[in-house]
Design brief:
Layout (H helix, E strand, L loop, with lengths): L2 E11 L3 H11 L5 E6 L6 H7 L3 E4 L5 H11 L4 E6 L4 E3 L1 H10 L7 E10 L2 E14 L3 E3 L8 E3 L3 E3 L4 E4 L4 H20 L13 H11 L6 H12 L6 H33 L1
Parallel strand pairs: 1-2, 1-4, 2-3, 6-10, 6-11
Antiparallel strand pairs: 4-7, 5-11, 6-7, 8-9
Helix pairs in contact: 1-2, 5-8, 7-8
């Protein structure tokens, strides 16, 4: 039986011990259940999850889209609502209250809210609106290697309270994570796999996929990326942290492009 007006927090993990205490303490008195799908961590991730009473499952990671769809389709979730949360995120008290209040609205199927990014331990002047709460059974994820998106059947209500995203505990950790992500994005680009159909004249998401597909042909593209974050997104207001983050975003795009060409050249070499 599905418990009415209740919510489960869903989390995928791999070697996230440095984040687990914070996120689980944030959720423990708010979520009716915490469910963790772990990809065979070798640190204390699973031990910390069990200590906080989380229901723990394990599955070898293949890609983000299929991993989250496995979570939704193969694991028994007993609550009416679910929230997708990453180990490096927490909910503000105001957002917790807003979510619980709107769970009683029978006219909505999902909720979105802004996520505030922290970098070098400081909040950046940048927010991203994300859909992370939905009725159990009303959503699925795009089959994407990385940067998966949730597709909801029904109306999404926009909330204004914040989720906080503590990106990485150190610059070294951030670069290691972005190294993995840029590799997955290069593979997705080489395989022509995108979260949405790339189209210059389509929806906002389709235009974004079109730009991602054709970005490598754009003159001055790395400077444009830096200026987009630093000037357009207003990270110049965040001081030196905003400057460093903007430069690093351009670097990540550069790494992705170089890895894409490496994959293409390797494929051509194997055909000779």
């Amino acid at each position: 039986m599905v418990s009415r007006k209740s919510i489960s927090a869903l989390m995928i993990t791999k070697n996230e011990a440095h984040n687990m205490e914070r996120v689980l303490q944030n959720l423990s008195s708010w979520a009716d259940e915490i469910i963790v799908l772990d990809s065979y961590s070798i640190d204390q991730t699973c031990a910390i999850a069990k200590k906080h009473g989380a229901r723990l499952y394990k599955r070898k990671f293949d890609n983000f889209g299929s991993h989250w769809n496995y979570f939704l389709n193969q694991i028994d979730i007993k609550t009416e609502w679910v929230i997708k949360i990453d180990p490096d995120e927490i909910l503000s008290d105001e957002l917790k209250l807003a979510i619980k209040t709107n769970m009683s609205d029978d006219n909505i199927a999902a909720m979105s809210f802004p996520r505030l990014l922290f970098f070098f331990g400081k909040p950046l002047n940048i927010k991203q609106r994300i859909t992370r709460v939905w009725r159990n059974g009303s959503a699925h994820f795009t089959n994407a290697i990385v940067n998966e998106h949730v597709i909801v059947n029904g109306k999404t209500k926009s909330l204004n309270d914040l989720m906080l995203h503590f990106d990485s505990p150190s610059l070294e950790h951030w670069r290691e994570k972005q190294n993995r992500y840029s590799s997955m994005e290069a593979i997705a680009l080489a395989k022509n796999q995108f979260a949405y159909r790339p189209s210059l004249f389509g929806t906002k998401d389709e235009r974004r996929m079109w730009l991602k597909k054709h970005f490598r042909f754009l003159p001055g593209r790395f400077l444009i990326i830096f200026m987009y974050y630093y000037v357009v997104k207003g990270l110049f207001l965040s001081g030196y942290s905003g400057y460093v983050f903007s430069r690093l975003r351009a670097d990540v795009m550069r790494y992705r492009e170089y890895k894409y060409y490496e994959l293409k050249n390797r494929t051509k070499a194997n055909l000779v």
